[in-house]
């Protein structure tokens, strides 16, 4: 079963625009992670945010976490064609023994 | 530093045939994971090893799937016999720490299985 649900399922933007993807989850978590997957490749870790953190930055990435709403967002600023990929949130749920559960992902297409 | 290596990258078999996938994790990573990813979905955990011990195999279909991690390094995942519904990408990942700690997962490129 998948814990996280990403929204939107697909997103198409122009190069230079910002892209925002959302993730909602159902149960309390220890941390939430975002991964990127280029077509036909493995997943690559982007950022981890812990349950006691509200916002985190890494380069052009900004992640927020709202534990009261059980949701997170990933913002990619000044997008590039190379950002075209699927983006997954993954949650480490409290009491589930360090099992990382992935959502279904958001497909991002950045047009040049 | 070499990443997680998986083989084969692609495999096409007839249903009821056996198939095996191999994974070599990043050197020094004690935790190894096998995930299955269906088309358009996120990865789903099949089994997790800490060193050579399978600590979470609750989602591994044990009637036809088996896995081993001899000597706590390389791992193989076997399906026998394969069914049409097993068509998916099988991803191996490793981590230095548990995913619940600081443990980001490092993924291999995956093995894409097609069962005809």
Poorly predicted tracts of residues of chain A: none
Please give the alpha-carbon distance between the first and last residues of chain B: 37 Å
Total of DSSP H or I helical runs spanning 4+ residues of chain B: 0
Structural class estimated from helices and strands of chain B: mainly beta
Relative strand content of chain A: over 45%
Report on this model:
The complex is a heterodimer of chains A (112) and B (116). Chain A has strands at residues 5-7, 10-14, 19-24, 29-37, 43-50, 55-58, 61-66, 71-76, 85-93, 100-102, 106-111. Chain A has 112 residues and is mainly β. In chain A, the strands form two sheets. In chain A, strands 2, 4, 5, 9, 10 and 11 form a six-stranded mixed beta sheet that branches. Chain A has a five-stranded antiparallel beta sheet with strand order 1-3-8-7-6, with no helix packed on it. The relative contact order of chain B is 0.32. In chain B, the strands form two sheets. In chain B, strands 2, 4, 5, 6, 9, 10 and 11 form a seven-stranded mixed beta sheet that branches. Chain A binds chain B through residues 2, 4, 30-31, 33, 35, 40-45, 48, 88, 90, 92, 97-105, and chain B through 4, 35, 40-45, 48, 55-56, 91, 93, 98-110.
Short précis:
Chain A has strands spanning 5-7, 10-14, 19-24, 29-37, 43-50, 55-58, 61-66, 71-76, 85-93, 100-102, 106-111.
Keywords:
heterodimer; A: 112 residues; mainly beta; 6-stranded mixed β-sheet; 5-stranded antiparallel β-sheet; 58% strand; B: 116 residues; 7-stranded mixed β-sheet; 4-stranded antiparallel β-sheet; 11 strands; globular
Reconstruct the topology from this structure.
The complex is a heterodimer of chains A (112) and B (116).
Chain A: E1 5-7, E2 10-14, E3 19-24, E4 29-37, E5 43-50, E6 55-58, E7 61-66, E8 71-76, E9 85-93, E10 100-102, E11 106-111
Parallel strand pairs in A: 2-11
Antiparallel strand pairs in A: 1-3, 3-8, 4-5, 4-9, 6-7, 7-8, 9-10, 9-11
Chain B: E1 5-7, E2 10-13, E3 19-24, E4 31-37, E5 44-50, E6 53-56, E7 65-68, E8 75-79, E9 88-95, E10 106-107, E11 111-115
Parallel strand pairs in B: 2-11
Antiparallel strand pairs in B: 1-3, 3-8, 4-5, 4-9, 5-6, 7-8, 9-10, 9-11
């Amino acid at each position: 079963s998948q814990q996280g649900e990403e929204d939107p399922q697909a997103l198409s933007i122009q190069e230079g625009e910002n892209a925002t993807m959302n993730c909602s989850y159902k149960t309390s978590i220890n941390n939430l992670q975002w991964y990127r997957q280029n077509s036909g490749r493995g997943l690559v870790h982007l950022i981890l945010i812990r349950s006691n953190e509200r916002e985190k930055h890494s380069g052009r990435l900004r992640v927020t976490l709202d534990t009261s709403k059980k949701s997170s967002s990933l913002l990619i600023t000044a997008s590039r064609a190379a950002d075209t990929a699927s983006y997954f949130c993954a949650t480490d749920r409290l009491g589930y023994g360090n099992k990382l559960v992935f959502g279904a992902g958001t497909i991002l297409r950045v047009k040049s | 530093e070499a990443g997680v290596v998986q083989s084969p990258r692609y495999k096409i078999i007839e249903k009821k045939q056996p198939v095996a996938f191999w994974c070599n994790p990043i050197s020094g990573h004690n935790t190894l994971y096998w995930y299955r990813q269906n088309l358009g979905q996120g990865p789903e955990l099949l089994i997790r090893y800490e060193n050579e011990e399978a600590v979470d195999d609750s989602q591994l279909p044990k009637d036809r799937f088996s896995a081993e991690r001899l000597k706590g390094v390389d791992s193989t995942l076997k399906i026998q016999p394969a069914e049409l519904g097993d068509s998916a990408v099988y991803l191996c990942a490793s981590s230095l720490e548990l995913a619940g700690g600081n443990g980001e997962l490092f993924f291999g490129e995956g093995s894409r299985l097609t069962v005809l």
